[in-house]
Specification:
The chain contains 7 helices and 7 strands. α4 crosses α5, α5 packs antiparallel against α6 and α6 runs antiparallel to α7. A hairpin with a 2-residue loop joins β5 and β6. It is elongated, with a radius of gyration of 23 Å. By secondary structure, the chain is of the alpha+beta class.
Length: 191
Protein backbone atom coordinates (compact mmCIF):
# COMPACT_ATOMS: atom_id res chain seq x y z
CA UNK A 1 0.00 0.00 0.00
CA UNK A 2 1.44 3.37 -1.05
CA UNK A 3 1.20 6.36 1.23
CA UNK A 4 0.01 9.42 -0.61
CA UNK A 5 2.15 12.51 -0.67
CA UNK A 6 -0.71 14.56 0.84
CA UNK A 7 -0.87 12.21 3.83
CA UNK A 8 2.87 12.57 4.39
CA UNK A 9 2.58 16.37 4.30
CA UNK A 10 -0.34 16.27 6.73
CA UNK A 11 1.61 14.02 9.10
CA UNK A 12 4.66 16.29 8.82
CA UNK A 13 2.53 19.36 9.64
CA UNK A 14 1.04 17.64 12.68
CA UNK A 15 4.49 16.53 13.83
CA UNK A 16 5.83 20.08 13.36
CA UNK A 17 2.88 21.55 15.32
CA UNK A 18 3.36 19.08 18.19
CA UNK A 19 7.11 19.76 18.24
CA UNK A 20 6.63 23.54 18.29
CA UNK A 21 4.04 23.29 21.07
CA UNK A 22 6.45 21.08 23.02
CA UNK A 23 9.22 23.65 22.60
CA UNK A 24 6.89 26.44 23.72
CA UNK A 25 5.84 24.53 26.83
CA UNK A 26 9.42 23.46 27.58
CA UNK A 27 11.18 26.79 27.16
CA UNK A 28 8.58 29.58 27.31
CA UNK A 29 5.94 28.48 29.83
CA UNK A 30 7.09 27.64 33.37
CA UNK A 31 5.45 24.42 34.54
CA UNK A 32 6.20 24.82 38.26
CA UNK A 33 6.32 27.81 40.60
CA UNK A 34 9.86 29.18 40.74
CA UNK A 35 11.82 31.36 43.16
CA UNK A 36 15.01 33.00 41.86
CA UNK A 37 17.67 33.48 44.52
CA UNK A 38 20.31 36.21 44.76
CA UNK A 39 23.12 33.68 44.25
CA UNK A 40 21.82 32.97 40.72
CA UNK A 41 20.17 29.65 41.50
CA UNK A 42 16.46 28.91 41.56
CA UNK A 43 14.08 26.57 43.35
CA UNK A 44 11.04 25.11 41.59
CA UNK A 45 7.96 23.52 43.09
CA UNK A 46 4.63 24.72 44.44
CA UNK A 47 4.21 27.85 46.57
CA UNK A 48 2.69 27.53 50.04
CA UNK A 49 1.58 30.49 52.13
CA UNK A 50 3.75 31.27 55.15
CA UNK A 51 2.85 34.93 55.60
CA UNK A 52 4.92 38.10 55.45
CA UNK A 53 8.69 38.11 55.12
CA UNK A 54 9.13 34.56 53.80
CA UNK A 55 8.25 32.48 50.77
CA UNK A 56 7.45 28.80 51.18
CA UNK A 57 7.84 26.30 48.37
CA UNK A 58 7.42 22.54 48.24
CA UNK A 59 9.81 21.06 45.68
CA UNK A 60 8.96 18.15 43.43
CA UNK A 61 11.46 15.96 45.29
CA UNK A 62 10.47 16.74 48.87
CA UNK A 63 7.33 16.80 50.96
CA UNK A 64 8.51 19.34 53.53
CA UNK A 65 8.31 22.97 52.41
CA UNK A 66 11.44 25.07 52.07
CA UNK A 67 11.10 28.44 53.78
CA UNK A 68 13.07 31.21 52.06
CA UNK A 69 13.47 34.63 53.69
CA UNK A 70 12.59 37.50 51.34
CA UNK A 71 16.12 38.88 51.76
CA UNK A 72 17.57 35.87 49.89
CA UNK A 73 15.28 36.26 46.87
CA UNK A 74 16.54 38.17 43.84
CA UNK A 75 14.66 41.32 42.86
CA UNK A 76 14.04 43.07 39.58
CA UNK A 77 12.68 46.63 39.47
CA UNK A 78 11.83 46.40 43.17
CA UNK A 79 9.75 43.23 42.75
CA UNK A 80 10.66 39.75 43.99
CA UNK A 81 11.72 37.44 41.18
CA UNK A 82 9.17 34.66 41.43
CA UNK A 83 7.18 33.00 38.67
CA UNK A 84 3.88 31.19 38.93
CA UNK A 85 3.78 27.86 37.15
CA UNK A 86 1.23 26.60 34.65
CA UNK A 87 0.28 23.44 36.60
CA UNK A 88 -0.27 25.17 39.99
CA UNK A 89 -2.36 27.85 38.29
CA UNK A 90 -4.50 25.16 36.66
CA UNK A 91 -5.01 23.51 40.07
CA UNK A 92 -6.16 26.81 41.60
CA UNK A 93 -8.49 27.72 38.75
CA UNK A 94 -12.19 27.14 39.28
CA UNK A 95 -14.40 25.79 36.52
CA UNK A 96 -16.77 28.75 36.85
CA UNK A 97 -13.99 31.31 36.33
CA UNK A 98 -12.73 29.34 33.35
CA UNK A 99 -16.17 29.22 31.74
CA UNK A 100 -16.74 32.96 32.30
CA UNK A 101 -13.38 33.72 30.65
CA UNK A 102 -14.17 31.36 27.78
CA UNK A 103 -17.54 33.03 27.18
CA UNK A 104 -16.04 36.52 27.39
CA UNK A 105 -13.09 35.82 25.08
CA UNK A 106 -14.18 32.83 23.02
CA UNK A 107 -16.58 34.65 20.69
CA UNK A 108 -14.07 37.32 19.57
CA UNK A 109 -12.29 35.18 16.91
CA UNK A 110 -15.69 34.12 15.55
CA UNK A 111 -16.74 37.75 15.09
CA UNK A 112 -13.35 38.58 13.54
CA UNK A 113 -13.86 35.70 11.09
CA UNK A 114 -17.30 37.02 10.14
CA UNK A 115 -15.87 40.52 9.60
CA UNK A 116 -13.04 39.18 7.45
CA UNK A 117 -15.43 36.91 5.50
CA UNK A 118 -17.61 39.92 4.68
CA UNK A 119 -14.54 41.83 3.45
CA UNK A 120 -13.57 38.87 1.28
CA UNK A 121 -17.15 38.68 -0.05
CA UNK A 122 -17.05 42.37 -0.97
CA UNK A 123 -14.02 41.59 -3.15
CA UNK A 124 -15.79 38.67 -4.80
CA UNK A 125 -13.66 36.08 -3.03
CA UNK A 126 -15.65 33.10 -1.81
CA UNK A 127 -14.00 31.42 1.18
CA UNK A 128 -16.19 29.52 3.63
CA UNK A 129 -16.70 30.60 7.23
CA UNK A 130 -14.88 27.57 8.67
CA UNK A 131 -11.81 28.27 6.54
CA UNK A 132 -11.78 31.93 7.59
CA UNK A 133 -12.15 30.83 11.23
CA UNK A 134 -9.27 28.40 10.79
CA UNK A 135 -7.03 31.11 9.31
CA UNK A 136 -8.09 33.56 12.03
CA UNK A 137 -7.00 31.10 14.73
CA UNK A 138 -3.77 30.44 12.84
CA UNK A 139 -3.13 34.19 12.73
CA UNK A 140 -3.83 34.54 16.46
CA UNK A 141 -1.42 31.72 17.23
CA UNK A 142 1.32 33.25 15.10
CA UNK A 143 0.72 36.70 16.66
CA UNK A 144 1.43 35.21 20.07
CA UNK A 145 4.50 33.15 19.20
CA UNK A 146 6.19 34.98 16.34
CA UNK A 147 8.25 38.14 16.67
CA UNK A 148 6.18 41.28 16.13
CA UNK A 149 2.47 41.81 16.42
CA UNK A 150 1.64 41.40 12.74
CA UNK A 151 3.32 38.05 12.10
CA UNK A 152 -0.05 36.34 12.18
CA UNK A 153 -1.40 38.74 9.56
CA UNK A 154 1.42 37.84 7.20
CA UNK A 155 0.71 34.12 7.61
CA UNK A 156 -3.04 34.71 7.23
CA UNK A 157 -2.48 36.81 4.08
CA UNK A 158 -0.23 34.12 2.61
CA UNK A 159 -2.81 31.37 3.06
CA UNK A 160 -5.67 33.63 1.92
CA UNK A 161 -3.79 34.27 -1.32
CA UNK A 162 -3.32 30.52 -1.76
CA UNK A 163 -7.09 29.94 -1.50
CA UNK A 164 -7.92 32.11 -4.51
CA UNK A 165 -6.58 31.72 -8.01
CA UNK A 166 -7.39 35.11 -9.57
CA UNK A 167 -7.63 37.73 -6.81
CA UNK A 168 -4.51 37.08 -4.74
CA UNK A 169 -3.75 40.77 -4.17
CA UNK A 170 -7.32 41.47 -3.09
CA UNK A 171 -7.20 38.58 -0.62
CA UNK A 172 -3.97 39.94 0.90
CA UNK A 173 -5.36 43.47 1.11
CA UNK A 174 -8.48 42.26 2.97
CA UNK A 175 -6.28 40.87 5.76
CA UNK A 176 -4.59 44.21 6.33
CA UNK A 177 -7.85 46.13 5.86
CA UNK A 178 -9.37 43.88 8.52
CA UNK A 179 -6.47 44.79 10.85
CA UNK A 180 -7.00 48.50 10.09
CA UNK A 181 -10.73 48.26 10.86
CA UNK A 182 -9.91 46.51 14.13
CA UNK A 183 -7.45 49.26 15.09
CA UNK A 184 -9.94 52.02 14.25
CA UNK A 185 -12.64 50.34 16.31
CA UNK A 186 -10.21 49.88 19.21
CA UNK A 187 -9.42 53.59 19.02
CA UNK A 188 -13.14 54.40 18.97
CA UNK A 189 -13.77 52.28 22.06
CA UNK A 190 -10.76 53.81 23.85
CA UNK A 191 -11.87 57.33 22.84
Amino acid sequence: MRIKKAHLWAAARVLLAVTLLGIIFKYMIPVSDTVYLKDGSHISGTFVDFGEGVVGIITEKGTDPIVIPVGEIATKDGELRTARGFIPLLREMTLGAYLVGLVMLGWIPWLASLRWKSLLGAQGIRIGFWRTLELTYLGLFCNNFMPGLTGGDVVKAYYASKLTSTKKTNAVVTVFLDRLIGLVMLGAVAG
